[in-house]
Write the structure tokens for this entry.
Amino acid sequence: MNLNQIMTLLPLIILASFAMGILLIGAFAKNAKGTSTIGYIALASMVFVFLSLFLFVGKGKMAFGSMMRMDVYSIFFNLVFVVIGVLTILASISYVKITGIHSGEYYALILFSMIGMMLMASSTNLVMLFISLEMMSIPIYIMAGFLRNDDRSIEASMKYFLLGAFASGFFLYGLTLIYISTGATSYQAIANFIAGTQRWNLSKLIWVGIAFITIGFGFKVAAFPFHAWTPDVYEGAPTSVTAYMATGVKAAAFAALVRIFFSVFSPFQHDWTSIMWLIAVLTMTVGNFTALVQKNVKRMLAYSSIAHAGYLLVAFVAGNAMGRSSILFYLLAYAFMNIGAFTILMVMAKKNDYHEDLDSFAGLGFKYPLTALAMSVFMFSMAGIPPTAGFIGKFYIFSAAVKSHDYWLAVIGVLNSAVSVYYYLRVVVYMYFKEPEEEIPTYRFSAPTVFSIVLAVWGVLQLGILPGDILNIARHSIMALM
Amino acid sequence: MGGLAHIPILSIVIFFPMVGVLFLLLIDKESESVLKGTALAFSIIEFALSLPLIVYFRSDTAKFQFVERIPWVKSFGVQYFLGIDGISLLLVMLTTFLTVLCILSSWRAIKDHLKEYMIAMLFLETGMLGAFIALDLVLFYIFWEMMLIPMYLLIGVWGGPRRIYAAVKFFLYTMVGSVLMMVAIMALYFLYHRATGVYTFDITKLYQLNLPLGPQMWMFAAFSLAFAIKVPMFPFHTWLPDAHTEAPTAGSVILAGVLLKMGTYGFIRFSIPLFPSAAHKFVPLIMVLAVIGIIYGALVAMMQKDVKKLVAYSSVSHLGFVMLGMFALNIQSVEGSIYQMLNHGISTGALFLIVGMIYERRHTRLIKDFGGLSKQLPIYATFFMIVTLSSIGLPGTNGFVGEFLILLGTFKSSRVFAVFAATGVVLGAAYMLWMFQRVMFGKLDKEENKVLKDLNFREIMTLVPLVVLIFWMGVYPSFFLGKMQKSVSHFLTQVNTKIAARQMLDHGNRALAENIWNNGKIKIVNVN
């Protein structure tokens, strides 16, 4: 390993060393104060990773014997992960105090899983892809069960782990089939093999392999019909972890999905587009319609995250460059709005009463006007109402569908988005239109939480009002794939 | 435009209310009179700021004026592109004018959350003005959607007992319509790119497209659904009575006065000129729906027990006239249609204010609770009478000019519709006068009504400007018609030229088609 390679891996090295350092310090810091110190250390690591990313802008560098590629595409995603990490860690600092997660491991696990996410976005080899998927998932299985005294959390962890392991099996099997039929694990070699072979000479197992890989990804992004775990896991896991996995895992899985499908499996685009079309439509529709009847906001956000996976799949099905870059843009927008909304839920959480149901939001609009305003911004953004990031993101995604002449997909998508308005608005209805039935408890706002919310609101409005720069970066980033 | 060449007057007009919002945010929510005063001051200054538009507006051209154009999202071709012509000018004036009256009318009616209320009002004003002034489809869409949020809050927070139902219904109806329009906007954008290689949402460019009939039909349908819901045309009107009954007075005034015009404006600015051949095909359908709306709205209004609901249904009827005139597509009918938009804003706005004033006193709006009020409230009765007559369309008031022009124009293009629509005028007189008689005349037999106080100075000042306009527009319409003349005739030339060119192209006669648009002096990009 030469210096050049080490430089390429710098963000990952920073993350790994901070994570291990935190594990060590965590052993000695068992009180609340120590835990928040560890939180700030984890935050510092994000800053270093952020800075280190700028070393690679414009250069596509390989590492681990071409098993991963640090190109603009992966840098974009790494930036998304940093945004997710910063927002989550900021919001976690007081949330772990309230819920009694007194441990440094919590932050270490966030960093470890982030290594997995970053590798997923940059892996260019089937083996690396699988390892990174597991590196990302295993810490999250643990994190989902961090509230050891809460049955829901244990259930979430167990469910996520069992089904996740099952899906990993499919995924690995799919990768194996691809290897069997092409004799290669590197994306480049597989692509060359497919390009150099007549279609009818290719082993049919490739199609089976693609299907299995799709199942694996479908599970991670919570696409229909592999979404069943989502509501229970998202509801049961600590809210900070839910925020982290709803955005981070989704972003990482889409990063890998787009890279492998458009650089390796693009000759089969016709074959997978039709099935993906159906999956996209059903994912949106099932997510939105089940979200309509939820009374628990956290659970509602879980179903809504299925719907958002559906929108992203619309862009994936559109299959053009616009669609790919809209996935990038949307994931960033989604990170801001989704973590923002979950952060508000974290503020409202008390030791034994999480205040997650809609009734807890009643009257919030006039008791805590700024909090309610922030929540409204997030809700309007998720519903896709201008001038927010969610609007530009949806506009971009559905434009991509229209551009590829898939008008029906766009129409189904926008109608779905109109349905979603109902349940997002309901939160606003409760905040502003309903009188609280019982006294609204006093919520405390620590500085990091407030900073996290402000950052998220800024992100939502920045991407909504002046999206030009990020759109350009997203467009530029997907060039690396071609 | 001379004196205003370098001032971004339209941006100032759009965003000045937002400055008011910032000021309001700084004021303590307990000091109510300061809040009211500030909001009123900002709305009056805003109206004053919009006056130069009408002063410096040049009536001798159909071009967009006071144009501002800045690239916004460059890679997409989205621009911050503003401008007004004779059609939007008057609607902009109507908006700034009615907002002042709305704030005046909320003086006593709004007791809770006054600060938030005033903020919502000013925010709404920015949204509405933006939608009238934007000439870029994305910018328009953003203002169009942004407008929903404050209106939704106005109904939902300050409305009547079923306010939540009404607010959500209002929001969802409008939302479903507009998302389909969004898809059509995208489709149009890519079609224009395919024809010219340029990505733009600039409507002056998109006007030049001459698309094949098939895509035109789909896109016209998608745009028109959004606008038809907003107008609202029969059978998409069911949200309107709910929204009106539940909304606070000022909300109803804005809703009827301006928001509904958003729909008719959308037809005249977007649906028809962008897709003229499709519009031409849709004329019979829309005219039938318009006539049904006129008669149905009037009949349902006649049966209402609640005065406010009666006024709400009368809106369905009046807006039917606007649509009828617009789709008759000749100079009288289209001018009448735009005139009727303004009339409806003024007369129906005034009616809602008047109903609101009596509701503040009696806390009921049921016709049977009143009777003989004219003895107790002579000033109120006078204003009510004038506004009622204007709503009926008595000669000498604004309503007459609009309805007359519409019927005249419609008669030219299709007599049957004109005849049916004329019965709507009769029915209109019937339900308004019958209601007026039951409320104002007869015996003053209810004890509660005997102690009612007549209008105070503030209320009179709210109504006087409206009455002045009612007579001004009724007696001297050419001031207003003159402003829109060029724009309307340009609109018709453009539409007719494109329809003719399309027909020639479809018959394979390219040379003749070229001849037509050269004569029309309109640049057209043909797409096959």
Remarks:
- Residues 3-481 of chain A form one domain.
- The mean pLDDT of chain A is 88.
- The interface with chain B takes residues 366, 369, 380, 385-387, 391, 395, 398-399, 402-403, 407, 410-411, 414-415, 417-418, 421-422, 425, 429, 432-434, 467-468, 471-472, 475 of chain A (CB under 8 Å).
